[in-house]
Amino acid sequence: MKLFHTDPGQDRSSTRHPLRLSFLIVFLSMLMTAVLLGFAQANQTVHAQTTESTVTSTPTNTPIPTRLPTGTATLTPTSETLNMDLFKALIRARILILIRAKILAALTPEATAPPESTATLSHTVAIPMVMNEALITPTVMVAATPTPTAIPPTIPTVAPAPLSPPIVPTPDGALRTAQIPILMYHYLSVPPDNADIYRRDLSVAPDLFAQHLDRLREEGYTTIRLDDLLLHLTEGAPLPARPVILTFDDGYRDNYTNAFPLLKERGMTATFFIVTDFIDLGLPDYLSWEMVREMHAGGMSIQSHGRNHASLKGRDDAYLIWQALGSLETIEHELGERPRFISYPAGQYDENTIRIFQSAHYWAGVTTVQGATHSSEDLFELRRVRIRGATSADELVRLLALDW
Length: 404
Ligand SMILES: [Zn+2]
Prior knowledge:
Blueprint: H1 2-57, H2 70-107, H3 113-144, H4 146-150, E1 177-179, E2 182-185, H5 197-202, H6 206-218, E3 222-223, H7 226-235, E4 243-250, H8 254-265, E5 271-274, H9 276-280, H10 289-297, E6 301-304, H11 317-335, E7 341-343, H12 351-359, E8 364-370, E9 373-375, E10 382-386, H13 393-401
Parallel strand pairs: 2-4, 2-10, 3-4, 4-5, 5-6, 7-8, 8-10
Antiparallel strand pairs: 1-9
The chain binds zinc ion (ZN).
Zinc ion is lined by residues 249-250, 305, 309, 345.
């Protein structure tokens, strides 16, 4: 019994010493692994911080889209450094495990070494698994980063409008004349109570304008564009039986609010001579580019009345080029269609005005000279019929019947 009691006890005491030693070694090795891994992680964070700072500073130099989330962008280089550091840490851990296993195998070859080694192995395997998550998360984010690059660049949206061909009509050289009334309107509204005599004279009330349009239709007139007249004079292009051209000078806002709807609902067209600087300045009494675009899209013709309504008479070439090309390019930019007609502001022009506007690829010009007969030899001196605030529908029909 005693032997029975003492023998196992002696056996245990004989094995207790190497077991304690092996536990101590395992504990120390685990501690070292933990320290090494901790060091590796610290390295990663340092790397991550440095790469982040360099990446966030780059957008000033490289054209990285602003919509690109910076958080995902920084992950790309960090994941590479993470990969390297983790690899190093893993190598260190593996070497440590091997050394530990060798020592344990030398001390206790029977039972203690294998379970310990598997325990440490499972432990070291568990760590890379956790680290692998850190590795996977950036790679998922990296896979997501190409999406912002797929966003189309926003810069080239202001594409220049394609230039129209220089001259569309091909004049056959034949001398032609045509009697086609070009009506000249200005304001299309009831003038304010404090309006002066000039404003009242230039203002046609919307109701009266509606009467004009209805009467024109009753009399069998068809509204045509200045382009139609030009093609008729230069090439002999056919025209409807009783053609009439409606023009509006100055580009007042009431042209959009009052004239445009009345024309549109009757399927009629008109030509609007606009002052481009007034629109650019956003003057409240004048049309906006949005309105002009809508009118243009609605079948109205938009042409030039100069940049700022200054007189084009007695001016030098540079000034006239500035007026001609400035207004032309602005309208073409806004509408995608080049204006071809000039209405001389206040009806003032001279031979030099015509020469410059002709060289700037304008096709014709309208004056304030009263009349309805036009010649293919005087395309830049087309006559018009002034419509006044007091012009009734009957008076309009009388004016249209005049031989002038
Ligand atoms: Zn004017």
